[in-house]
What does this fold into?
Amino acid sequence: MPATVVVGTQWGDEGKGKLTDLLAKDMRLVVRYQGGHNAGHTIVVEGESFALQLIPSGVLYSHTVPVIGNGVVVDPAVLLAECDMLEARGVDTSRLVVSGNAHLIMPYHYEIDRATERALGKNALGTTKRGIGPAYADKAARIGLRVQDLLDEKIFREKLEVVVREKNTMLAKVYNRLSLDLEEISDLYLNELAPRISPMIGDTVSIVHEALDAGENVMLEGAQATFLDLDHGTYPFVTSSNPTAGGACVGTGIGPRDISRVVGIAKAYVTRVGSGPFPTELEGELAELLVERGHEYGTNTGRRRRPGWLDTVMLRQAARINSLSEIALTKLDVLSDLEEVKICVAYEVDGERLTRLPYHQSVLHRVKPIYETLPGWTDDLSAATSVADLPDSAQAYLRCIEEHVGVPITYVGVGPGREQFVQFHR
Ligand code: IMP
It folds into this structure.
């Protein structure tokens, strides 16, 4: 059975956690393929809220095997803390498998993330300061430490000594920061973290292929989103990995022919955290209303998200880049009680109408959204369980999105709970 990819289609925080949890019900494996604990997934099960950063959403089902693929960057201390948190709440984490090829986030990555953001001043990217970018930079520079290095003290020490020397020189000479202690890092990783992480390390490429060969359902869970993608996002205001569907192949070790379904998660409006262009951004009363009603504050960092109207120019681009087979639209309930709702269908720049994302990003900073305005609805959608429960104007809103994006909407989220969704076209 070929795999299903779940990918964010905007700037993250689309509610992927809830959807992956929903789809995980039918999955044998749920595999994270990129990013690290910069992600934050909230899943509400029977009124109880679980905030996950690293462990795939599937962990909450006893029949799924959660896998952290080779494309992920792992802070082992964070991973263990998350396991402990879940265990304390009665969730069994013993099935978790972590790729030996995944790279480790080290203490100097946090320092460098903070120092570079500070040095960028007003041009700062607004990173989560979790060391993600510096860890991927070391991976590309071939000086990263991998999860499997925790299994060999000699190799770990040899690599660490070289890297810590280089990082300390950089921290002191370039950023005027204090040096990090090699022995302290070595002791933490080798003596405290490695003994607990070692049993989780496995050959995740084989695990994924064996499941596919056995005809089992496999889900590849993306973190962040299409427009935070290192190659396809609004660079440099992006994350340092490839959340797009292509990244799912590299980050798990499968080929494109092993994927048959790509579910794009889109929020019924758009939010963005951190800096960067955002054509449909809203300000004022309506912005506050969406932020408060949608609880648009980062799961991990608590940062307020910037809100805006849904943008189908971006969604069309996301549909192409990820070859979306369907869209799951989340948080439709947040738009209730508005007199009218808007959908951006094109951009206007220098008197021209653009229906595609401009390739030159400085143009994206100047575009003005062209909106289609639809009547709103006053009904509370949170108890809707079928399309018939959705008011006509909400259905019209969904159909308008489908028309402009050219991809069917299958699921519609109407509240944070696991059961709060409507199947639209499935
Ligand atoms: P980094 O991933 O910490 O390097 O941050 C780079 C950019 O990606 C910043 O604008 C972050 O706000 C954004 N970002 C990273 N992870 C997430 C996420 O899970 N949701 C939304 N934005 C994110």
